[in-house]
Amino acid sequence: MKGGDRALFISMTGIGHLIAGMPEEEFIGTTWDGGANSCVFVSDLKRTWYNDRRVLDEAVKILRSIVQAINPRTVVAIGNSMGGFGAIVLSSLLRIDTVISFVPQYSIDPAIVPEEGRWSGYRSRIAEIVYKEAATHFVPQTEYYLFHGSDKVDAHQSRRFPRAQNIHGYVIANAQHNLAAMLKSNGHLRDVIDFCIARDTAGLDAHLRKSYGVPPVTETSASSAITGRRAGRRSISPESETNGEEASVARNTLEIQTFGLQRSGNHAVVAWILQQYDRPMVFLNNVAHFEDPYLNFRFADVANAVPLRRPADEASRRAIEKLRMAQKELLLISFENLMLPKLASRDLIAERERSVGQSSHIRRLLILRDFYNWIASRVRLFEKKGFATNELSRAIVPHVKLWIVYAREFIGETNFLGGGEVVPLSFNRWLNDEDYRAHVLGRLRLPLRNNSRAHVPNVGGGSSFDETRFSGDAESMNLLGRWRHLEEPPYAAVLDTIEEHAETIDRYNSQIFGLASPFQQSPREGSRPT
Questions:
Q1: Which of 241, 320, 397, 505 has the fewest CB neighbours in a 10 Å radius?
Q2: What CATH number does the domain located at 8-227 have?
Q3: What is the pLDDT of residue 497?
Q4: Intrachain domains 8-227 and 238-524 with the same fold
Q5: Which CATH number is 238-524 given?
């Protein structure tokens, strides 16, 4: 319904084809506000949780034209249950200012939320679960307001949601899955929606405290009301790192966990860490997230690392178990492409006390490479894996979004990795600044034995462009000129995809690396990063 341009409400219908738990005409009365706002409705008639790609693909095209025609001051996506999940997903496909989501599911994939037994008939008819979990669809430019009831039936969904600076969660006492209808019957729904539109989080907090007597589930308390865990600003548990009195019995004198996106220079940094020791250290490469690291790592041929392969028979299993229990000067574990918000509700290492044991000191190293050189290397990797040129623009979308997640963590907008034990590493600066490398070693509690970066490990084929040809002379690699790969005409669609997120990308890229987009001018005019 076309009204005024104050706000455009995009209403995602739920499984009963209701909006925020109400019939369409009743919802319009709540949001229409005498015609000051406009409303548009998106329905998933097959009840696939919007996993039928045609629904959202077509909806996004139409919505873009509507937004352009109305030019509203703010765009709000709102939904209940299935529609609440759809509103979150939509925010990753279309520029949305605010998402208001009542009792959304975190996932309807039984592999992710095995406790969920509702809607099994609808779920069984979904051909492919494309949108597996909500955490991968939060974007930094959108403000999210998530509302759940305290009913145990929804607890296994609500406790999995991450919390961050722009993700606000509320668990309302004595409320069930019909939360939106309850708020309306109590005369509070209109006020709640108004607070969200205005992004008046403080006002919303006060209103819900006064009305329902419970604090919001914020980034410092998320999930704790349900699971007893600390979420959002999650830190390593104190029992994982020993104090001085216990240090002598720790399995690991120093444990370093590295976090980076593929093609960010992770293994070059790992090789540099290992060369600070005069004998081989234990390195568990590209460990499966939330699993036992000793049983779920990938082979890596890195100098000065103890040669390891995943156990395949009884003898190799015994060898791994012996290594697991041995005292180690350094335990180095790498994690790639981890969706950091998942740390809000899950333990990174399964059964940590048993699988890894105590460590005298723990450091988390967050590695980030500038966007345009990184994405060029990422595209080249897709090509080496056999992706056709016309498949690249779609393939890079989740990786672009994940780079933004890592950039936000890097500058401290989010704090999923914890507090003072996190060491951010700019790969660009690490490449060319010996003093910076020495500084990072100090923060990692490592000795400085060899500060060169000449080695190119033979992991994942080495460099996307040069493989291992420059091993021993890595300084000669043109690592800051990879972006030129995307200048060629076949990559125009890739650049179009990047352009959809360019405002956010360029803001973080400039803040962290001091680099502007090399494609702000025509590449033929010789534009380069500043």
A1: 397
A2: 3.40.50
A3: 92
A4: yes
A5: 3.40.50
